[in-house]
Amino acid sequence: MFDKLAAIEHQYEDLVALLGSTEVQSDAALYRKHAKTLAEIEPTVQKFREYQAVTHDIAGAEELVNGGDADMRELAQEELKSLLARRDTITGELKYLLIPKDPNDEKNVVLEIRAGTGGDEAALFAGELFRMYTKFAERHGWRIDVMSTSETGIGGIKEVIATIEGRGAYSKLKYESGVHRVQRVPATEAAGRLHTSTATVAVLPEAEEVDIHINEKDLRIDTFCSSGPGGQSVNTTYSAVRITHIPTGVVVSQQDEKSQIKNRAKAMKVLRARLYEMELQKQQDAIAKDRRSQVGTGERSEKIRTYHYKENRVTDHRINFTIYRLDDVLNGDLDEVLDALITHDNAEKLKDATTA
Q: Distance (Å, rounded) from C-alpha 59 to C-alpha 63?
């Protein structure tokens, strides 16, 4: 661990020198790049230097304990006790500072929810999940914007795609990707039998053009008449847009706006996020061949959580975490569940950071 810290300190000193050079100062893009890296590692370097100072003070206190008069030894022993406790605290803080930072944590989110097995009941559950995330976003002061939605006649949702904008949105919601399962007795079930339905959630970091380059030659763009609610323009103007990314086969459709330009912009935002997610998945697969330090795999086919109505229970299967506050969770009070996932994830990453 301390070899890593020494290397980071050396990197910090090199960056300080670089930022003072004429060559870097004359290149705005290069200066911003190095300044960003410097800002990211500075807290770790400051804490490491604090550790070094405390270690130096411990050595001095130990000398006084082993020599000098009785009064001085007694004072030195008290100081040594305090310094050793401080060193232990700083060591713990350094370990957490060494946990690799997810560069996407501060990004906005593209949220996709789709009804799974269970027919109308699955669509109702998908709608409830979307309301849960909407209320969670509101609690955190984040802005949510529906990109597209496909509803059922009974108040359910077949599919909804939305963006959530706010500081740290991805850092919290990234753990929600996967299959969510509900177990309850549907209102239409006369015999009172328990039914199991599912919905799939995907949480993608919103990608900017600088994150992923899309060649226009790789796109096939089709326009068609929109369908569903929309007024006089429905079925009369070619405002709906379907974009196909030919190399990957990823297809995105958008028709909520009356303007073809706005629909294309929204479709490109979703396409960019999906392609970025594919690239991230490749990187994660390469980094973690034996096992992932993240909670779960993030795969959309992985069952991650069960909402059991009769028992008022929410269970996250990845960390065997259960709380009996189903109503609160569905009303957007997700912090206890997400904090447990974050704590577990950080503990796993900490093992990797201190043993690698």
A: 6
C-alpha to C-alpha distance for 159 and 148, rounded to whole angstroms: 8
Which residues 6+ apart lie within 8 Å of 273 measured at CB?
110, 204, 205, 206, 207
pTM of the model: 0.66
d(CA 278, CA 134): 25
CA–CA separation, 222 vs 235, rounded Å?
Answer: 15
Running DSSP on this structure, what letter comes out for residue 167? Answer: T
Residue 47 — φ and ψ, nearest 5°? -70, -40
Q: How many other CB atoms are there within 10 angstroms of residue 130's CB atom?
A: 20
Query: Which tokens hold the place of 23?
Result: 């060559």
CA distance 200 to 181: 9
The token duo for 316 is 């996250």
Q: Residue holding tokens 């919103």?
A: 206
Q: What digits encode the pLDDT tens for the residues 323-341?
A: 999 999 999 999 999 999 9
**Secondary structure (3-state) at 138:** helix
End-to-end Cα spacing for the chain: 9
